[in-house]
Automatic annotation (TrEMBL):
<feature type="domain" description="CRM">
    <location>
        <begin position="1"/>
        <end position="95"/>
    </location>
</feature>
<protein>
    <submittedName>
        <fullName>YhbY family RNA-binding protein</fullName>
    </submittedName>
</protein>
<keyword id="KW-0694">RNA-binding</keyword>
<dbReference type="Pfam" id="PF01985">
    <property type="entry name" value="CRS1_YhbY"/>
</dbReference>
<dbReference type="InterPro" id="IPR035920">
    <property type="entry name" value="YhbY-like_sf"/>
</dbReference>
<dbReference type="InterPro" id="IPR001890">
    <property type="entry name" value="RNA-binding_CRM"/>
</dbReference>
<dbReference type="InterPro" id="IPR051925">
    <property type="entry name" value="RNA-binding_domain"/>
</dbReference>
Length: 104
């Protein structure tokens, strides 16, 4: 990921709300699966690490990214921003654009 792409994703993440919280149980397999599903649906997500979680947010971010095949955009305090490009979405967009061009 280039610095320009990272900067763009950071700006998009500013308005996002956290859709997952990591608490005392830390990173469970169920949470990992849920994060993977959310990344497939949204591409860009924000995760909060609660105060009662003893793990380091940067380590958690790297672990989640490794397990889900995503990239860490940024970790600020106890907020983690993750990105995973959805290839199927990109292909669908391209097909839709081609169809629009053919209609014209």
């Amino acid at each position: 990921m280039t610095s320009k792409e990272r900067a763009e994703l950071k700006s998009q993440a500013m308005v996002l709300d956290s859709i997952f919280q990591i608490g005392k149980a830390s990173l469970t397999p169920q949470l990992t699966d849920a994060v993977r599903d959310a990344l497939d649906a949204r591409e860009l997500i924000k995760v909060s690490v609660l105060k009662n979680c003893a793990d380091d947010p940067k380590e958690l971010a790297n672990l989640i990214a490794e397990r889900t095949g995503s990239e860490v955009v940024q970790v600020i305090g106890k907020k983690i921003v993750l990105y995973k490009k959805n290839i199927e979405k990109e292909e669908k967009k391209k097909r839709m654009e081609k169809a629009k061009k053919k209609r014209k």
